[in-house]
Amino acid sequence: MIEQIDLTMVNWARATFALTAMYHWIFVPLTLGLSFICAFFESIYVKTGDEQWKKLTRFWMTLFGINFAIGVATGIILEFEFGTNWSNYSWMVGDIFGAPLAIEGLAAFFLEATFFAVMFFGWNRVSKKAHLFATWMVAVGSNLSAVWILIANGWMQNPVGMKFNPDLARFEMTDFGALVFSPVAISHFVHVTSSAFLYASLFVVAVSSWYLLKKRHIQFAKRSLTVACTFGLLASLFVAYTGDEHAYHAANVQPMKLAAMEGLYDGEAPAGLVAAGLLNFSKKPGDDEDPFIFKVKIPMVLSLLANRDINSFVPGINDLVYGNTAENIMGVEEKMVRGKLAVAGLGDYKAAQNVGDQLAASKALTLFEKNSDYLGYGYLDSAEQAVPYVPLIFYSFRVMVGLGTFFIFLFAAYLYLLYKDQLEKQPLLLKLGAFSFFLGLVAHEAGWIVTEVGRQPWAIQDLLPVTIARSNLDAGTVEVTFFMFLILFTALLIAELKIMTKQISIGPEGD
Amino acid sequence: MFKNAFYLYYDGFRSMVVGRTLWKIIFIKLFIMFAILKVFFFPDFLATNFATDAERADHVLNNLTRPSSGNH
Questions:
Q1: Predicted structure pTM score
Q2: What domain range includes position B49?
Q3: Looking at this predicted complex, what is its ipTM?
Q4: What whole-number distance in Å separates Cα of residue A361 and Cα of residue A369?
Q5: How many domains does chain B have?
Q6: Domain boundary assignment for chain A
Q7: Interchain contact, A84 vs B42, CB within 8 Å
Q8: Among partner residues B4, B18, B47, which is closest to A499 by beta-carbon distance?
Q9: B47–A83: do the CB atoms touch at under 8 Å?
Q10: N or C: where does chain A have the smaller number of CB atoms within 10 Å of the terminal CB?
């Protein structure tokens, strides 16, 4: 089936979505994190009454406003794409995503829009405490918006609390609580938001380091750094903890993703974690080649990470594709047989309904429901199609983890040198700090690549491959919109960089 | 209270400096998104091509049960 489908369109649609999401994600984490950092600064101002903290708060609030204004509504394009390029998917998940996205819209509108005006226009018009409350509400509102989006994304990684309606071809919500409190969605949310806090802290570090290098606004920069590095250090430690939780859930519900992250082809007990390695690009599932040209492995750690048991078995790509009876793992080939029964059952049900044959419809529905957990596998032509592109996931994961670890040391070094009042004498570290904001962006995007490329070929894990989720469009249409977005988002990014750098070069006095 | 709220916005918008540029960018962006991209390049595929929800459901079911047909 998949060979007969125009894969070019699917790939352009995926590329367009990836491009849009990655651009969108340049702005969003800065909004999420900087809103809290502004709230911290203002809380210190209200507590101490020191006007310098007010000036500092207003400066960072202006940068927050610039980022918010440039980034606002860039996510709407993702929704356009759902309706145009991914119409089958949109139709099927409309009932599931309707509630979270409606709540997101209302929360964003009422909390952000109401308190935004007070935050920016309310200085000297409302009391200090009322203004501080508004700032905190903007921070909470921004992050609440993210909750619902990430719950929706978590559902795609681990679809729970729903039932497929074969008459309407829709997944219908049966348990809102299961959707909202899905451990995958929760771990996804806390990992993503805490990494946004880290990213925003790096932004403050970058700007403040630049001031220190230029020997401008020194006291201002040191105060900003003290708060941002404390927040950043706590956030980066929490990111490491939540990342571990995230990987643990992936091991349970998306074992193929974990195997790809580790380049693990043959399961092991106990399994070691590859700390660093060079992949053999010619390695394919089922062949005898060594997956690595070179690797450094830490024994037992992968077993601990995946199952919380240092001696446990962690399945590899070959176990998941071809099955492993000793470990009671059903292979993709068997899942494909069941998936094709589900597809056939659905087709027979529809045909029987059309001619009014209720007995045949009932039998077909039973066949479908018995195999519906494997529906997506029914659209695969070979078991190997269930394997995502390993090198991209393997290296992205190491980039994310490596940079995340580096940030912990960076924040700790900054705090130590601030405490010793030696930071200004470390120009190399300051240059590294200024550059680290861009490393933060790389780490963020790498994390999303692991999450989203790691679940390929699925739009909805195990239930709907991207090749079926798409619309019946030709590739040319999607190709045109890809380049239009590339131009639009690049223009927005240039505008943001221009306005932001101008405001940074003016400094806090320009407020 | 309403008067105070009105003047909060009124004075706030009047005294904007960077905000003026940002609002221009926001309006241009929204115009491009909704008046150009959405209208000419991003029609809702199912809403445009099918009149009723029953037809839309039937189309998606066709894709789910006979994925090799109608996908080009």
A1: 0.91
A2: 43-72
A3: 0.84
A4: 12
A5: 2
A6: 2-254+389-453+455-510, 263-388
A7: yes
A8: B18
A9: yes
A10: C
